[in-house]
Amino acid sequence: MSTIIRLTFIEIRKKKILYLTLGLTAIFLILYATALNFAYDSLEIQEPFIRATISSQLISMGIYAMVFIVSFLSIFSSVGAISTEVDNGTYDAILAKPIKRYEIVLGKYIGILLVLIPYVTFFYLSIIGFNIFFGKGMIVNLPFNSILKSLLTLYLLPILLTSIGIFFSCSMSTMASGITLLIMYFFGMIGGFLEQMSGVITVEATKQALSNIGIITSLIIPSDIIYKKASSVLFTTSSGLNLSIGSLMGAKTQPSSAMMIYIIIYIIAMLILAVRKFQKRDL
């Protein structure tokens, strides 16, 4: 399996989409840092609570943009991992050697994550670092433990999307896998917005309907839950106040531990299904 992991890692590093993403990430961070510089200068005359609330929104915007970019990179890195090589007939030569099919699936999966996890770490710490630097004491207090827990939670996003992408790649063509997973991702995102909106709706029937739609979409694809959990962990103060609760990019309630366990089970199930699908696939 180590050979597949190494080859996948090298293959990802040669893909143009990675360098395109890195270039666009650098441009985004420059623009984001410039915006923070001006935004925090204008906050000096504001009340402390308003400064803390706005600073949490600025951080949320940065992390939300990061989640988008990481999600797209995870999807496009994984949906062609198996199907492209099946179409090219690569596995005729590989499977002639003593390599099990499950080793190929898991090796591809781990190899992709070896690129994505350091990328998430760099991106996330850049956003937090810029806010601390330009905030100059004006941003909401961010304990180290909260930053670490939030980052560890965000790791679940590429782990989840890559597991789904690998499963689809074992089942369908690259284009079909990409379109299906993108639709599912936006499906989950819209469901998350609707659930967040239910927090400000006063009509009980509408409130319940929007909340139920959000729950159902989260069960189908829990990518939005990962962002909400990371945001809640980062912005919930020691007194229990969640400073991101009033935003569409926030979370009206912190996702439960049971939901996080569901996500882990979901990821494992996707990998098992991917292995079973690839073992039965006619190459």
Automatic annotation (TrEMBL):
The chain crosses the membrane at residues 17-40, 61-82, 109-134, 146-168, 174-194, 257-275. Pfam families: ABC2_membrane_2. Keywords: Membrane, Transmembrane, Transmembrane helix. The keyword Membrane applies. This is ABC transporter permease. It comes from Tepidibacter hydrothermalis.
